[in-house]
Design goal:
Shape: elongated
CATH architecture of the largest domain: Up-down Bundle
CATH class of the largest domain: Mainly Alpha
CATH topology of the largest domain: de novo design (two linked rop proteins)
Number of domains: 2
Strand content: 15-25%
Bound molecules: zinc ion
Low-confidence stretches: none
Length: 257
């Protein structure tokens, strides 16, 4: 990126208070991928950004970039979509936070990928409109892995390439896909997955949002794919996601209640 003033369509991934009155923000933009910037006086002058710099919001961003600083300077922000329902319902909000943390952790700064932007803005809209939270979170994970080029091997064995007829298969994040019984011997951390779930995940990885909305899934799919996908994501990024821990805590609290 050259020195100068730029315009971008952005989703706000993160916002941190900085110093007396500034904010440091992370954006995922359609044009430039993930970028970070500073909004000077964002907390002092409410008029200037009028609440347009909240995490998850979809905005038109104007920023100034100099080669000297890693942080661009936020000049202006206009709200395109605030996803109001997402932000008032704790179940939706926590899923939305999970989506943005996932994008933040799985992407690198300065690598543009319009499909990632489209995916994130599209799924935030679905969650805001009342789409099934668990189902769409799983679909988001598999689609994000697919567009970033991390899709695990879900048809047949990733090691020997055979397609053994096993109704209950085993998945290895370390190997990057399903392993057959003999290739799975001695491999730690295998995750069980039924043929149905593996097939549906492979299909969902290729579908756009419109077609995904028409897929019917079972509770078994939701449970199996959650475990498999999160295990794989954790292996890829090398750590737990903060929002996942929060989601698990919320779930165990609601089971106890
Ligand atoms: Zn094998």
């Amino acid at each position: 990126m050259k020195r100068g003033l730029f315009k971008a369509e952005a989703i706000i991934l993160n916002s941190l208070d900085y110093g007396e009155s500034d904010r440091i923000l992370t954006f995922y933009t359609l044009e430039h991928g993930k970028i970070r910037g500073i909004a000077k006086g964002a907390r002092r002058s409410r008029k200037r950004f009028v609440g347009n710099l909240e995490p998850m919001s979809h905005i038109d961003l104007i920023f100034f970039h100099t080669e000297k600083s890693e942080l661009m300077r936020v000049e202006d922000a206009h709200l395109i979509e605030s996803f109001p329902n997402l932000k008032v319902d704790i179940d939706r909000l926590s899923r939305g936070c999970y989506l943005i943390e996932l994008v933040s952790e799985m992407t690198r700064e300065g690598q543009a990928s319009p499909p990632v932007f489209q995916l994130l803005s599209g799924f935030l809209k679905v969650l805001d409109n009342g789409g099934d939270l668990d189902v769409f979170t799983r679909f988001f994970e598999i689609r994000l892995l697919a567009v970033l080029g991390y899709l695990p091997h879900l048809a047949g064995c990733v090691v020997c390439k055979n397609r053994p007829d096993e109704p209950l298969k085993k998945f290895s994040s370390e190997r990057g896909g399903i392993v057959c019984r003999s290739c799975g011997i001695g491999v730690p951390g295998l995750v069980p997955v039924s043929s149905g779930t593996a097939g549906l995940l492979a299909m969902a990885a290729k579908l756009d949002l419109d077609k995904l909305s028409r897929l019917k899934v079972s509770q078994a799919f939701i449970d199996e794919s959650e475990r498999l996908l999160y295990d794989f994501i954790k292996f890829q990024i090398g750590k737990e996601l903060k929002t996942k821990r929060f989601l698990d805590k919320m779930r165990s609290a609601s089971v106890r209640a």
